[in-house]
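Folded chain entry —
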Amino acid sequence: LESSLPEEQTEAQTVVDPKVWTSVNIEVQKLDEGESLSDIDPASLDKAESLIPLLEEWCDLVSNPDTYRNTNVTASIRAQRNQPVLHVDPEALLKRVIAELGERPNPRTDPTGFCFWGGALINPLPALGVSLEIRGNLLEVRTLEERLTILEAGLVRSIQNLKGERRL
């Protein structure tokens, strides 16, 4: 990055002028660097595996058009706010998202990949609008345990929304 700075500028600076190019220093870290499966607490692997039923329940609820008949369910795929009519087929949309994400990583052999996959599933683009945004949080934290906690909380909260128990 420093080679892209003008000669007179040796460090990145914050610039408010939208007509001026900005530069930033970025620290790249390999996720789970130096961490092998033998270093991971077995309880974390158990917790990762325990999230599979929540992911399956979430998929069942999201893909079922009957879920959206309950107007207490927050969803950005509604044709009109607080109306049961959807402007997309939720099952087809979920199938497309899963096809784009690829096979779900095994939580026992790739728990971090599993967390990112789960976050991408419940927060796809374009958004379904049925889950709180967790992708940024998953990227910001540094430990598997924190990622698992974020994914679990996101799934539980979204399932509550999809059941009409607690709106987003």
